[in-house]
């Protein structure tokens, strides 16, 4: 695969209001103070310039932590463009700060579908040499609509489970055109970001939006992957009675042994006060569930796309719909029951909150930055496949995390290594 170095002139940034940059920079400064691993990576990048002469397009949730990742990549010598992976998670002041700092930005809060797609196109008109994607929007658009750009793409990194499912599908069909690194599958991503990050940020988003108590209520968690584990764990810690809905018998068994009740969705729908979908699949909560829910049931989604709760069927059942608080829609049904949907069924932790804690995203975004460096350096040796994050990078991020806490761990002696590596002993 060859990389063409001649670039066209990129579009100017398309943002809401550049005068918001000062407020956005304060947010970025705050997370920088709490991301020591990424600070370590930045210092190396500033010296070695691994992305010199390269253009990188980043499609992620555009809030402060993502902004700092973009600045770290920029410090590595890259010309950087950013675009939103979700129109409701974009923070206009943060995007303005990036634009003021020389990063091309194409996003604003509440973009329509047409605007959102136009922003994606502008970010690709940037003619990137490599990408960071979240949910596969850049990869899908490149393969379906912008094939003329593929020859110059060295590859990229993917952030989420949903995006990796798309990449695996492309790889299985043998239509993936460049190598992609599955950052979501790294230990230092899913064990901490998916579990502790999602667990905390989902309930932060729900509680700040509703201002309601969780203790003593029934929380239904739909999906018991790593994100679902985190959501269930934090719900339990807040005092909720937790019910898990699953399709995988192994995960359902795990949920029971973790102390949770497991029920089919149709049964859980009758007793839940809070519902959180975390599956990556569509129609997990639909008409047959809405019709049996309690009056006052609250629905939230923590999966990448707004398809897990069937909004179309909910609206069809409603006799009236109104916004009762910011990010809360009230759907009144024919019998007078009300069901509440948070953040339009989009990612509740980002659309109605600030996303994962900075210390958690420090690990994930360090993996993104290091994975991107690996890809740019090794792309000639990589086929158009989905690759795991190299184990040594996963280990490095974990070591840096421990160092930032001042924690030391043991190391194997020579005799212990020999014992483990010999079948004779």
TrEMBL record:
Enzyme nomenclature, EC number: 3.13.2.1
Single GO MF annotation: hydrolase activity
UniProt: substrate binding residues: 134, 159, 189, 193
Binding site for NAD(+): 160-162, 194, 223-228, 246, 281, 302-304, 349
Cofactor(s) the protein needs: NAD(+)
Keyword vocabulary terms for this entry: Cytoplasm, Hydrolase, NAD, One-carbon metabolism
Catalytic activity: S-adenosyl-L-homocysteine + H2O = L-homocysteine + adenosine
SMART domains the UniProt entry points to: AdoHcyase (SM00996), AdoHcyase_NAD (SM00997)
SUPFAM superfamilies: Formate/glycerate dehydrogenase catalytic domain-like, NAD(P)-binding Rossmann-fold domains
Pathway this chain belongs to: Amino-acid biosynthesis; L-homocysteine biosynthesis; L-homocysteine from S-adenosyl-L-homocysteine: step 1/1
Major place of residence: cytoplasm
Boundaries of every S-adenosyl-L-homocysteine hydrolase NAD binding domain copy: 194-355
Highest taxon listed in the record's lineage: Bacteria
Family: Belongs to the adenosylhomocysteinase family.
Protein role: May play a key role in the regulation of the intracellular concentration of adenosylhomocysteine.
Protein name: Adenosylhomocysteinase
Species, as recorded: Fodinisporobacter ferrooxydans
Gene designation: ahcY
